[in-house]
């Protein structure tokens, strides 16, 4: 539909923690890649022999320390999940010289440069867009505060960089098994006009929003990245049948219906790939399992009807889905 | 393969190069977006470094710069309207807050989170509004050049502007090149002695500075007439400064060697040239001629305004003629350089290095 993919080559790999690996993706001829601002991410398009086409979203880190990556480079950090999923495929199969396809950078989590104070909250691998924002704030001498939370310090990627850049305005919070971050105290201490940028586990994002709402903050003061399309772990593979063409297409555990169709040469209308734009819903004729809706576009009524789904993010927990297409 | 995007072949930088009108523009720099008075509750648009920008003020008076192009169907947002601090696209009514976030899309049940419009860092230093068109991460307000004399009550300025079909490299060269004064501007700034007076050139990082002292000679009209010392011998001390790709300042101190009883001996002029590329071959140009004497003298205002306008119009003509020849004449020419071109060559080299660094080269 849109010509928006770039070819890049893996030029560097660094093991940041036992589970997180950093990849430097560079243009093939050192020409500048499209530019991006803090909070931006790219889609990484890859094909796993087990699951088929996989698209994962990775925030652009932007550089190391205060040092910027050159314009031919995108820097991402990939955390290996416990299950044998897309990230495991990346860790196992990407080496120096591997050629990949990525989308142009997209920014759904922009840093508002007009903030009087920014509170950055990172949970675990959620540090990647936050680090990019931190570098921006430090460079521009803006007021900020940062909390980087994780179970154990040794698991926190870029921990030394973050501590060095943030100095006294940053703190590392090791939550261990029960030392929860006191979000209420943190938010209460903020001067009026502080904007919060949070990237981390859904529970942390939700808790922050809840606390802010309790304190009477307007919604727009809490900004978070919405990684709707991320796997939840209970996905199962299934087959899609298209009524009109009578084709049967397999959808792997880590593949979306949209991508499985595209790989089979069926190009469905779509744009955002995150269940928002409303271009991709298809009519469901039969499904032998419940639909797992992961979009934000469909109404509650459409959702419960089980008659339609956004093929870019939603799937079924069954073996066969017949679509009116 | 059909999904792969074509990346425009990049400009190839080589070591030892000098900028000209074909060199990519330096983007990581504060440029002038407009005068404070031009930016208001009425949205205006202006193309800056090749990008269409819409400019307006919030209810609180803060200047805002957003891309003049709706992310949905490219409708120019300056053709929309302001409702409070919300910019409303005139095509489908998408609404954007001053940070560029989409806050409402009337035809959708939800607000799409990917529908923001790019905003640009801006800083107001009245009477100017500066904008950063490069990497917003590098937009440090401490880098905004000082122009305190434009708002200082101890100074008085006259001002004007031009929209020119020329390139910013040639414009900066013209401003650093003082040997053209007696010939292109015989009636105003130029005197023959001045063309031959010795100049000292120095570089401070990316800044190129020329110092020049011309002792005991007749003043040029543009300084002598408003000061009322055309019959005197003066020392003329001047500094011309390529301060950044966006600004050139020229400071002059005229010292009357035998001041009349009760009159001052020293007259200062600060001339500010502000240049923002519209494209690689067209520029927005604002000038200010500021003085620290006769602050309330309407005749001095009129004279300095007329003389400056005439001199700068001569520069505008010359630079437009030059670019037209350079672009349209088919036989290539490599222009000669001479000793007086040293400041301009240092400036061209600096612009080239900065553009190369932005493109990722380490020359």
Automatic annotation (TrEMBL), chain A:
Residues 238-325 form the 2Fe-2S ferredoxin-type domain. GO terms for molecular function: 2 iron, 2 sulfur cluster binding; oxidoreductase activity. PANTHER family: BLR2392 PROTEIN, NADH OXIDOREDUCTASE HCR. Transmembrane segments: none annotated. It comes from Verminephrobacter eiseniae (strain EF01-2). InterPro entries: 2Fe-2S_ferredoxin-like_sf (IPR036010), 2Fe-2S_ferredoxin-type (IPR001041), 2Fe2S_fd_BS (IPR006058), Beta-grasp_dom_sf (IPR012675), FAD-bd_FR_type (IPR017927), FNR_nucleotide-bd (IPR039261), MRET (IPR050415), OxRdtase_FAD/NAD-bd (IPR001433). This is Oxidoreductase FAD/NAD(P)-binding domain protein. Residues 3-112 form the FAD-binding FR-type domain. It comes from the Bacteria. It holds the Pfam family Fer2.
TrEMBL record, chain B:
GO terms for molecular function: 2 iron, 2 sulfur cluster binding; metal ion binding; vanillate monooxygenase activity. Pfam families: Rieske, VanA_C. Its EC number is 1.14.13.82. InterPro entries: Cholesterol_7-desaturase, Rieske_2Fe-2S, Rieske_2Fe-2S_sf, VanA_C_cat. Residues 30-131 form the Rieske domain. PROSITE patterns: RIESKE. It comes from the Bacteria. It is an enzyme of class 1 (oxidoreductase). Keywords: 2Fe-2S, Iron, Iron-sulfur, Metal-binding, Monooxygenase, Oxidoreductase. This is Vanillate monooxygenase. It comes from Verminephrobacter eiseniae (strain EF01-2). The lineage of its organism: Bacteria, Pseudomonadati, Pseudomonadota, Betaproteobacteria, Burkholderiales.
């Amino acid at each position: 539909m849109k010509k928006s993919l770039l070819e890049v080559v893996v030029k560097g790999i660094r093991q940041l923690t036992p589970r997180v690996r950093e990849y430097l993706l560079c243009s093939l001829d050192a020409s500048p890649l499209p530019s991006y601002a803090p909070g931006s991410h790219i889609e990484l398009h890859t094909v796993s022999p087990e699951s088929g086409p996989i698209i994962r979203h990775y925030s652009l880190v932007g550089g190391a320390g205060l040092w910027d990556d050159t314009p031919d480079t995108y820097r991402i950090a990939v955390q290996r999940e416990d299950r044998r999923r897309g990230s495991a495929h990346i860790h196992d199969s990407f080496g120096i010289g591997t050629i990949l396809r990525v989308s142009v950078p997209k920014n759904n989590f922009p840093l508002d440069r007009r903030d009087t104070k920014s509170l950055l909250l990172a949970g675990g691998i959620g540090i990647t867009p936050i680090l990019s924002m931190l570098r921006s704030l430090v460079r521009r001498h803006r007021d900020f505060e940062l909390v980087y939370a994780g179970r154990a310090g040794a698991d926190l990627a870029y921990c030394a960089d973050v501590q060095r850049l943030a100095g006294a305005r940053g703190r590392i919070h090791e939550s261990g098994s029960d030392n929860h971050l006191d979000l209420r105290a943190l938010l209460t201490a903020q001067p009026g006009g502080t904007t919060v940028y949070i990237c981390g586990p859904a529970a942390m994002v939700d808790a922050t929003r809840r606390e802010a709402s309790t304190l009477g903050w307007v919604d727009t003061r809490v900004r978070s990245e919405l990684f709707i399309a991320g796997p939840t772990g209970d996905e199962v593979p299934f087959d899609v049948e298209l009524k009109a063409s009578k084709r049967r297409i397999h959808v792997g555990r880590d593949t979306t219906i949209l991508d499985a169709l595209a790989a089979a040469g069926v190009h469905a209308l779509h744009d955002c790939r995150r269940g928002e734009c409303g271009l991709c819903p298809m009519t469901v004729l039969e499904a032998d399992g419940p639909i797992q809706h992961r979009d934000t576009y469909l109404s509650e009524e459409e959702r419960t009807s089980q008659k339609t789904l956004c093929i870019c993010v939603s799937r079924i927990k069954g073996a066969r889905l017949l679509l009116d297409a | 393969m059909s999904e792969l995007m074509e990346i425009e072949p990049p400009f190839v930088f080589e070591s030892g190069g000098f900028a000209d009108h074909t060199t990519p523009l330096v983007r990581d720099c504060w440029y002038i977006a407009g005068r404070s008075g031009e930016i208001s509750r009425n949205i205006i648009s202006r193309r800056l470094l090749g990008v269409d920008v819409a400019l307006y003020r919030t209810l609180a008076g803060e200047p805002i710069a957003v891309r003049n192009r709706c992310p949905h169907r490219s409708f120019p947002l300056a053709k929309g309207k302001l409702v409070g601090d919300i910019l409303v696209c005139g095509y489908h009514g998408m609404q954007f807050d001053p940070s560029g976030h989409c806050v409402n899309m009337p035809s959708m049940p939800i607000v799409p989170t990917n529908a923001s419009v790019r905003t640009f860092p801006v800083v107001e230093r009245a009477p100017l509004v500066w904008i950063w068109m490069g990497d917003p991460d590098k937009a440090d307000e401490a880098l905004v050049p000082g122009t305190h004399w434009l708002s200082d009550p101890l100074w008085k300025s006259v001002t004007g502007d031009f929209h020119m079909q020329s390139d910013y490299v040639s414009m900066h060269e013209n401003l650093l090149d003082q040997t053209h004064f007696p010939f292109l501007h015989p009636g105003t700034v130029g005197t023959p002695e001045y063309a031959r007076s010795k100049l000292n050139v120095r570089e401070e990082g990316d800044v190129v500075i020329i110092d020049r002292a011309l002792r005991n000679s007749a003043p040029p009209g543009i300084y002598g007439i408003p000061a009322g010392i055309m019959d005197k011998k003066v020392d003329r001390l001047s500094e011309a400064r390529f301060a950044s790709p966006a600004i050139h300042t020229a400071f002059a101190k005229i010292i009357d060697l035998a001041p009349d009883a009760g009159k001052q001996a020293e007259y200062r002029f600060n001339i500010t040239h502000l240049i923002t590329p519209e494209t690689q071959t067209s520029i927005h140009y604002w000038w200010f001629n500021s003085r620290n004497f006769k602050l309330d003298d309407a005749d001095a205002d009129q004279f300095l305004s007329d003389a400056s306008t005439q001199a700068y119009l001569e520069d505008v003509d010359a630079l437009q003629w030059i670019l037209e020849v350079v672009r349209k004449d088919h036989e290539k020419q490599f222009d000669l350089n001479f000793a007086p071109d040293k400041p301009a060559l240092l400036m061209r080299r600096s612009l080239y290095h900065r553009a190369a660094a932005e493109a990722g080269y380490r020359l």
